[in-house]
Amino acid sequence: DSTIYLDRCKVSGEEVDYTYGQGEILKVIQQLDKDDSIFMDEYGNIRYRGITPSNYIRFNKETWRIIGYIDGYVKLIRADKLSNSRIWGDSSSNNWTRPSLVMSYLNPVDVNLTESDGDYWINLDDEARLMIEKTIWKLGGLSSYSITPSQAYMDERGNNSFNHQLTEWEGYIGLMYPSDYGYAASSECSSSQILTNYNNEICTTTNWLFLHNNEWLQTSAIGNANHVFYVNSTGYMSSDHANHSYAIRPVVNLKSAVRIVGGIGKENDPFQIK
Length: 274
Hints:
With about 270 residues, the chain is α+β, with helices and mostly antiparallel strands. The chain has 8 helices and 18 strands. Strands 3, 4, 5, 6, 7, 11 and 16 form a 7-stranded antiparallel beta sheet that branches. Strands 12-13-14 form a 3-stranded antiparallel beta sheet, with no helix packed on it. The protein has a two-stranded antiparallel ribbon with strand order 1-2.
């Protein structure tokens, strides 16, 4: 029931002006949302949640999804994992800026003076690379996985880390945070469960970010030199040695000049951007 125009789209019978900035577009969609799939968290971020939100987007000539309007940027995640699992880091360090093996694989040479551009960055579509904003990624560590998404969000942006590692990094591509994963579940789950209990049916069946894989997250543990948090294949969050091989999904923040020019966010009609 949606009609697409050059710069406008009807969502639930209402027109959305695509000449708005990214955050304004999501705010309009939030106001029109009929099934609680888009909401504002306690910190003013607009996020998608539930099992089938209309947050599909075409990026890098692939299907990605919008996590939300987080910390002032439209934040995207690849809809599916990359074909090969990856070791997060070496056996002795959970330091993303060292750099970790995942960081150097995803990012270009000028981020952290690695020897060569990462294989993933090199193979991105040229237009996609131009759309990615180089931003500050928060690297605050977690002391426990027995916390809520709200608590995780604060810790991720805190100053605690193992052995005083850097808690900020400027770069292009990272991974999803524990809080991103937690908030993506329905309100019934995210408002009442700690992340280590996300393997219950309410959470696993209502979280669009859960792919039934062991999947690395961005965030390290502060009580161990080489532990990093990950989502277990049954849905709960835990931590493991950085030199284990788990699935990864790249995450990027879009430049403010990027605009939605078509689509309605459905899997068969994703948002189009340029």
